[in-house]
Design a protein that fits this description.
Blueprint lengths: L21 E10 L25 E11 L4 E5 L6 H8 L7 E6 L3 E2 L7 H7 L1 E4 L14 H11 L5 H14 L16 H13 L5 E5 L7 H18 L2 E5 L3 H7 L2 E6 L2 E6 L1 H6 L4 H11 L1
Parallel strand pairs: 3-8, 3-9, 6-7, 7-8
Antiparallel strand pairs: 1-2, 1-4, 4-5, 9-10
The structure holds adenosine-5'-triphosphate.
Length: 291
Amino acid sequence: MSVTISAPDAVRVPLLPPPPLLAVNGLSRSFGPGCPRCEQLTGDAAGTSRCAACGTVIAVHEVSFEVGAGEVIGIVGESGSGKTTLLRSLHLDAVPGAGSMRVAGYGDLFTSSTPRTELRRSAVVMVHQNALAAGLSPGLAAESNVAERLLSTGCRNFTDARGQVSGLLEELGIHPSRHADPLGTFSGGMQQRVQLARALVSPPRVLLLDEPTTGLDPSVQADLLETVQRVTDKLGSATVVVSHDLDVVRILASRVLVLHYGRVVEHGIPEQVLDDPQHPYTQLLVASRLR
Ligand SMILES: Nc1ncnc2c1ncn2[C@@H]1O[C@H](COP(=O)(O)OP(=O)(O)OP(=O)(O)O)[C@@H](O)[C@H]1O
């Protein structure tokens, strides 16, 4: 008698892992003329990101990472380590000196012929530290601030737009009785939620979070982080969060990169990097957080 053994569905695995939604490769950016000695005179061993020969600052040097759908990667580092420059580059404020930023369905955003404003509408969206400094209007209703982005992506069905905006604001913890209130009358934490709603109302491929909880009370921070976690999970964007606060990264991210003088000196899962840091700089960063 012959017996056929077949694997149960649960143990079938795809031959290849799914491609990442965001793949950053060799991103470098510097400020200054550059010279042949820049690389040698900057970085960990040199103890500076400024070249002693020509004064150029190597703000970000050969940074590479990948982020999958629904995944959050955290970037940490002290002031001046290059976090903002990296995030701004990912938000296409300028084309960096070298590297690529591939986003599924769009190719390399750094060399794309699609206008930057268009890419920022559909492919890559940033949530800034402060909603009002990020360009949201304090005099405009919360719902109008959110609807503005939806309409800019081409949505012309106003009834649908209203329903979508209102549903999302409610999901992010803004009670319907406040949707028509001017944004300027909201607390800092609520303004951040409106900014998040604006970013997600037309889900971007890549979501960039720049110090999303700075200046908020600890209880408001925890609520906001829980919300970010829930919505990024649900919408499946690739998320990059930059924060001084190691706890923010520990809560949100499944992987963390440590930047020092613009270089990645350590990366891994938060439990590994933050609980058992290997690089002396990460050890210092973690120790200063505990002091
Ligand atoms: N436009 C610029 N011109 C010259 N140097 C710059 C410019 N922008 C940034 N830098 C330098 O690049 C390095 C990295 O700066 P960046 O702002 O990216 O660091 P950061 O980690 O975000 O710091 P912070 O946490 O204080 O915002 C710093 O030495 C900074 O002085």
